[in-house]
Design goal:
Blueprint (H helix, E strand, L loop, with lengths): L3 H7 L5 E5 L17 H5 L1 H9 L3 E5 L16 H11 L4 E2 L6 H9 L5 E3 L14 H12 L4 E4 L10 H5 L6 E3 L1 H14 L6 E5 L4 H11 L5 E4 L4 H7 L14 H11 L3 E2 L3 E5 L9 E4 L8 E5 L1 H12 L3 E5 L12 H11 L4 E5 L1 H9 L9 E2 L3 H9 L4 H7 L5
Parallel strand pairs: 1-2, 1-5, 2-4, 3-4, 5-6, 7-8, 7-13, 8-9, 13-14, 14-15
Antiparallel strand pairs: 10-11, 10-12
Helix pairs in contact: 9-15, 10-11, 12-13
The chain binds adenosine-5'-diphosphate and magnesium ion.
The site of magnesium ion (MG) has 4 residues, from helix 14.
């Protein structure tokens, strides 16, 4: 895989460089303002290096899940504004992805200038399963540039036009963020220092069962919290009230528990409430006694102690997925407690996942206390599963370079 430095050493002054970045930041539902700009900040080193080298920088990115057509709700406008603030220079936003306005704006770029294309997912072809459809968009994107840099680590597991197909059409390199993420993931997968402890939470068990399956043989302990713990608790025979439950995954969870022996560690208590709201009365109950009609929305204080003890002697930790509904104040303590325990680890601590990374920042924890905060949840999980990531495979193919 060629690095950004390889590209810079060949000289990029005056050349048009298309950079796929991950600017998929969370927005406040009511105001539309950015609630966590971590991904924008993570994109700066590559963009700044290219600008300093005199490249004409064309940035492609997606935001949210628009339905393959322009939708003002998902415009990159707030992102362009924030990116401009962070770069210290206004960032122009094209009105389209790779249409007339994008072409006109790219033609006007001078050396060291940058333009942001509108949300690539405004084009249905971006995420199409049809190679020809994606290819047509990739052709138009490639027409905007001489070189391609992929720095969108959070999207490398997607076979999308701006991630995969366009890299086949231009000389390409991996950006600084992609390089750094890969460096850390390689340390997690090649002979990690032990004990190696993985903490998983978040909402969807079915998304994460594959990674549990792949990690079980490699880890010393796997701590499971968040919404996904209830399917495991159900597999142990506990009632889970109205908590998140994926009934069709209970059997798989039962098998995983049997295989793992005591290496899978589940919560011992949970914070319950009658509904998903910030102004409700909460109760802490042991996992054996979750009342009907109550939802488990966070792990309880005893669980934080248990998980903290399990993390105490760890030398390598990967944490993905909040322990509770950290967006609501009454259900933050579990995530905060586990985040503190992960930060205190004497060794390599990696946080992966958009919501987990946002939780670290929103709960006021010190980002520098972690070895690495990954910008890509799905991508890092798929890497740890040992799956092939299309965006990386295509970068490693140097035949077009
Ligand atoms: P990440 O983005 O870090 O990979 P996920 O997207 O898998 O994490 O999960 C994050 C979401 O999980 C958060 O929005 C959080 O509110 C939710 N969540 C955590 N615990 C629970 C729970 N007990 N019940 C419902 N949702 C939960
Ligand atoms: Mg998420």
């Amino acid at each position: 895989m060629r690095s950004l430095d390889d590209l810079l050493s060949e000289g990029v002054a005056g050349r048009r460089v298309l950079v796929r970045t991950d600017l998929n930041v969370p927005l406040d539902k009511a105001t539309g303002s950015i609630t966590d700009d971590g991904r924008i900040r993570a994109s700066l080193p590559t963009l700044q290096a290219l600008r300093d080298a005199g490249a004409r920088v064309v940035v492609a990115a997606h935001l949210g899940r628009p339905k393959g057509a322009p939708d003002p709700k998902f415009s990159l406008r707030p992102v362009a504004a924030r990116l401009g603030e962070l770069l210290g220079a206004p960032v122009a936003l094209a009105a389209d992805v790779a249409g007339d306005d994008a072409r006109a704006r790219v033609a006007e770029l001078t050396d060291g200038e940058l333009v942001l294309l509108e949300n690539v997912r405004f084009e249905a072809a971006e995420t199409s399963k049809d190679d020809a459809e994606r290819g047509e968009l990739a052709d138009r994107l490639a027409g905007l540039a001489d070189l391609y840099v992929d720095d969108a680590f959070g999207a490398v597991h997607r076979k999308h036009a701006s991630v995969y197909d366009v890299a086949q059409r231009l000389p390409h390199a991996a950006g600084r963020l992609v390089a750094r993420e890969l460096d850390v993931l390689t340390r997690l997968t090649t002979d990690p220092d032990r004990p190696y402890v993985v903490v998983l939470g978040g909402s969807k068990v079915s998304d994460k069962l594959a990674v549990i399956e792949a990690l079980l043989p490699k880890v010393d302990r796997l701590l499971v919290g968040g919404g996904m713990c209830f399917t495991f608790l159900a597999a142990q025979g506990h009632g889970v009230g109205g908590s998140l439950l994926e009934a069709d995954q209970v059997d798989t969870c039962r098998r995983l528990l049997a295989e793992a022996g005591n290496r899978i560690v589940l919560p011992v208590d949970v914070v319950c409430a009658p509904e998903f709201s910030a102004d409700v009365e909460t109760t802490v109950v042991p996992v054996e006694a979750i009342p009907d009609g109550q939802l488990g929305l966070d792990v309880g204080p005893r669980t934080v102690e248990v998980f903290g003890a399990e993390l105490g002697d760890a030398r390598t930790v990967f944490w993905n997925g909040p322990m509770g509904v950290f967006e609501l104040e009454p259900f933050q303590a579990g995530t905060r407690g586990v985040a503190r325990a992960v930060a205190a680890v004497d060794g390599l601590s990696v946080v992966g996942g958009g919501d987990s990374a946002a939780a670290v920042r929103q709960l006021g924890l010190d980002e520098d206390a972690y070895g690495h905060i990954s910008t890509g949840g799905g991508a890092s999980l798929e890497y740890l599963e040992g799956r092939e990531l299309p965006g990386l495979t295509v970068l490693a193919d140097r035949s077009g370079n």
